[in-house]
Design a protein that fits this description.
Response regulator receiver protein; 3 domains; alpha+beta; about 425 residues; OB fold (Dihydrolipoamide Acetyltransferase, E2P); single chain; LytR-like; five-stranded antiparallel beta sheet; three-stranded antiparallel beta sheet
Length: about 425
């Protein structure tokens, strides 16, 4: 270094104000050290102090530092991160070079937030779009907080806020991902599942000492919990669970393999890849929703005609179908079934006498087996039009069909206008 012409500098990175001497000579200060907050002027988190030419010599050299760090609100185990001599340059430029490749993913996060933000107010699956929007925003927020060290030459008290923001964004990302996965596969007790993941994650974050560890755990614990959940749902043959499980396992495994480098650069590439996967899955859901909307429109036209015919009572032809209940196969007459409702992996059949039975199968399969008098008025409900008495419209736009047994079945918002015009109900 002494033979090189560029000037040299003393680089100091840490939560401190500092004054430096080299070989007994004062070379400068970064802020002003003091015994208390009033007497201290906080220094920059990453600073360089020029070393006068000729002050360094070959062999042993002595560096003396006076340090104080009393202005922050976090107490770190390792508040000083680097002390080195090198070619004089702005330290934020060196840091930004490390973060610069990952800043390219910011566009993906921003586009995802904008696209799903619009979907939150205008789309069909508003809750799903809102969660994906929040996931994108938390990823973008964490990227900006991480890269701020290379974008701003801030004084060291801001570093505490930066660490907290990184942990909070990582936690928000993980918990929104958990909510998205739980909502996607709809377990029997979604709030209980979500509460367990929240408690375990928050406890782990609080008990972990390092803030890098807190940020990693805040993200990794929800991801691994979702991986375990999707593995169980895959074993139960939930559609799409296996693909989610593989994606989450790969994400978690790479985060553990990369270790300390994960939160600096690789995190944002992995998050971008995971978000693209989630976007693709959401697009598939929206495509299915559109297909279902077309089917429901067809059902609406059928229901419109059926309700017209229902005003003139007539005897419906009897037909029998097979239902599987607790391992037994039984034949039942369809003219006694008033409506069917989806109940997880089962279908609940309601009968004219008020009784109910469970069938081990899907609502789609049941729809194909039932005669034309049965119409699907909602993604989770099929009604026997012979038992429909009236329709009532709710302020939200959905409707409620009243069955002759007194039961009430919801009607999808998409088919409400046609049904309402047909029966002239309010």
């Amino acid at each position: 270094m002494l033979e090189q012409s560029p000037p040299l500098g003393l680089f100091i990175s840490g939560k401190a104000a500092s004054t430096a001497w080299v070989n007994g000579r004062l070379i400068g200060s970064n802020g002003r050290p003091g015994a208390g907050r009033r007497s201290e002027t906080p220094g920059r988190m990453d600073a360089v102090i020029p070393i006068p030419s000729g002050l360094l010599h070959a062999g042993a050299n002595e560096i003396a530092l006076q340090l104080s760090g009393v202005s922050g609100f976090l107490r770190l185990d390792s508040p000083m991160q680097a002390l080195m001599i090198g070619t004089y340059t702005d330290p934020t430029d060196l840091i930004l070079r490390a973060y610069w490749p990952s800043l390219g993913t910011f566009g993906i996060f921003l586009l995802g937030a904008l696209y799903f933000g619009v979907g939150t107010f205008r789309g069909g699956d508003r809750a799903g779009a809102a969660l994906l929007c929040l996931i994108s925003l938390f990823a973008a927020g964490q990227l900006l907080a991480e890269a701020s060290r290379g974008l701003l030459a801030y004084r060291y008290p801001f570093h505490d806020l930066r660490l907290v923001l990184i942990v909070l964004c990582s936690l928000g990302f993980g918990l929104c991902l958990t909510a998205h996965v739980i909502r996607r596969f709809q377990p029997r007790r979604p709030w209980l599942s979500f509460a367990v993941v929240v408690l375990v994650t928050v406890a782990g974050v609080v008990l972990t000492a390092s803030y890098d560890g807190k940020a990693l755990l805040a993200m990794l614990c929800p991801v691994l919990s979702c991986a375990l959940g999707t593995a169980c749902w895959s074993w139960k043959h939930k559609p799409g669970a296996a693909v989610y499980c593989v994606a989450l396992v790969v994400f978690g495994a790479l985060s553990l393999f990369l270790g300390g480098k994960f939160l600096d650069v690789a995190f944002f590439y992995l998050v971008a890849a995971l978000l693209l996967f989630l976007f693709a899955q959401q697009a598939a859901v929206l495509a299915r929703e559109q297909k279902l909307g077309i089917a429901l429109a067809s059902h609406a036209r059928q229901l419109e005609a059926a309700l017209d015919q229902a005003r003139t009572p007539k005897q419906l032809p009897s037909q029998t179908i097979r239902i599987v209940d607790t391992g037994r196969i039984e034949l039942v007459s369809t003219d006694q079934i008033t409506h069917c409702s989806g109940a997880g992996d089962y279908v609940e059949l309601a009968f004219a006498d008020g009784s109910k039975r469970l069938h081990n199968g899907s609502l789609n399969e049941m729809e194909r087996e039932l005669p034309s008098a049965f119409l699907r008025v909602h993604r989770s409900h099929i009604v026997n039009t012979a038992f429909v008495e009236s329709l009532r419209r709710e302020s939200s736009g959905v409707g409620q069909l009243r069955i002759s047994t007194g039961a009430v079945v919801p009607v999808s918002r998409r088919i409400m206008p046609m049904v309402r015009r047909t029966i002239g109900s309010d």
